[in-house]
């Protein structure tokens, strides 16, 4: 059974959390609530998340401050953050969101389908990253445990399968980048595509390092 990804929803208003759960329930992943920045940081101490949806306007620790804490922690700094805000103070306010480490910045009221589609991209990337890490660990064990004919053939087959799966994701990411390669492209979408490309580059580098004759097991990129 494939383990579900966890999505962290951070908002001080229960009705907003309920609305987010209704929108994202179709993704069939584990949705975790946090009603404050402090509660969100506590959840991040123990669990791994595919993506964080973070409200900007919260009493006490606001979204920007919460994001700053998340990015300072080595364990959580690579988790994608999507800011949600009911206010829009123009480009400067949006820039502050990206400067705080967000991969996207969405103003309320937002299109439910668009939000769900954007979150699904990060869930898919997270799941593929986890799968690749698990299979690469298995491959390393096989390589370290012996190089007899059967094991070597099985390892080579698994490596080829991993490479093919990653190539399919790389092709999708490249197509997305081409669609966004014009002056009218949304800045948030461009930032999201760039984030995906960086993660895929790290995965490809790790996979290439597993090829015979490259000197052993690599350190894979973080799961988020």
TrEMBL record:
Ranges in coiled-coil conformation: 152-186
Keyword Transmembrane helix included in the entry's annotation: no
Entry annotated with the keyword Hydrolase: no
Keywords of the record: Coiled coil, Phosphoprotein
Residue list for modification 4-aspartylphosphate: 55
Domain Response regulatory: from-to ranges: 6-123
InterPro entries for the chain: Bact_response_regulator, CheY-like_superfamily, Sig_transdc_resp-reg_receiver
Name used for this protein in its record: Two-component system response regulator
């Amino acid at each position: 059974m494939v383990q579900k990804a966890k999505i962290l929803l951070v908002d001080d208003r229960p009705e907003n959390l309920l609305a987010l759960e209704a929108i994202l329930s179709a993704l069939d992943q584990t949705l975790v609530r946090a009603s404050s920045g402090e509660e969100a940081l506590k959840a991040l101490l123990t669990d791994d998340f595919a993506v964080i949806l973070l409200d900007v306007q919260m009493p006490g620790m606001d979204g920007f401050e919460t994001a700053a804490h998340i990015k300072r922690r080595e364990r959580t700094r690579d988790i994608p953050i999507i800011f949600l805000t009911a206010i829009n103070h123009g480009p400067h306010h949006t820039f502050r969101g990206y400067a705080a480490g967000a991969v996207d910045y969405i103003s309320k009221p937002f299109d439910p389908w668009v939000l769900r589609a954007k979150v699904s991209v990060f869930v898919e990337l997270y799941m593929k990253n986890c799968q690749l890490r698990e299979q690469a660990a298995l491959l390393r064990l096989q390589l370290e445990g012996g190089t007899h004919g059967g094991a070597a053939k099985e390892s080579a087959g698994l490596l080829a399968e991993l490479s093919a799966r990653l190539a399919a994701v790389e092709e999708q990411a490249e197509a997305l980048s081409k669609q966004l390669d014009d002056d009218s492209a949304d800045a948030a979408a461009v930032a999201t595509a760039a984030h995906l490309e960086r993660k895929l580059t790290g995965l490809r580098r790790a996979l290439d390092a597993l090829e015979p004759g490259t000197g052993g097991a690599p350190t894979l990129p973080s799961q988020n």
